[in-house]
């Protein structure tokens, strides 16, 4: 009959049903026998002073683990917030890109219109230049006729 194994009971304490090859370290074989002993064993064999030190040690380890978990929760929260902010920033960047694209298209259209206006102004300048040349020729002819 196999003994009841509680999820909290260390496995090395119930090795009578395992083959010898699969038997884990026992309390005396462990490289760290003090860490492998149960709380009940330590409390039963220790003096009040050692029990107090053990309690302080456990309390310190527990505090350290709680602080580590708190730090991990804070880091995870920051990552989640950063992830939600990054999607917001990505959406804002997409909206800005659409606005910039519209501005670029508008600028392109304005440049085409300005090129057309420049061409018309060049034609008008050439026409005015021809008229000035013709008017100076007419002025010369008029002066010649008046003499």
UniProtKB/TrEMBL annotation:
Main location group: membrane
Pfam family, one: BORCS7
GO cellular component: BORC complex; lysosomal membrane
Record keywords: Lysosome, Membrane
The keyword Coiled coil is assigned to this record: no
Cell compartment(s), UniProt: Lysosome membrane
Entries under InterPro entries matching the protein: BORCS7 (IPR032143)
Record has Methyltransferase as a keyword: no
Similarity comment: family membership: Belongs to the BORCS7 family.
Protein name: BLOC-1-related complex subunit 7
Gene designation: LOC111144813
């Amino acid at each position: 009959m196999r003994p009841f194994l509680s999820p909290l009971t260390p496995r090395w304490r119930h090795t009578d049903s395992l083959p010898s090859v699969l038997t884990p370290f026992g309390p005396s074989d462990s490289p760290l026998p003090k860490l492998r002993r149960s709380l009940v064993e330590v409390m039963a064999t220790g003096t009040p002073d050692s029990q107090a030190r053990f309690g302080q040690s456990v309390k310190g380890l527990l505090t350290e683990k709680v602080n580590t978990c708190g730090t991990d929760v804070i880091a995870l929260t920051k990552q989640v917030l950063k992830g939600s902010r990054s999607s917001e920033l990505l959406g804002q960047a997409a909206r800005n890109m659409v606005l910039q694209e519209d501005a670029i298209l508008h600028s392109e259209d304005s440049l085409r219109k300005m090129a057309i206006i420049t061409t018309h102004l060049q034609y008008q300048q050439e026409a005015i230049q021809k008229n000035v040349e013709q008017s100076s020729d007419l002025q010369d002819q008029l002066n010649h006729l008046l003499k």
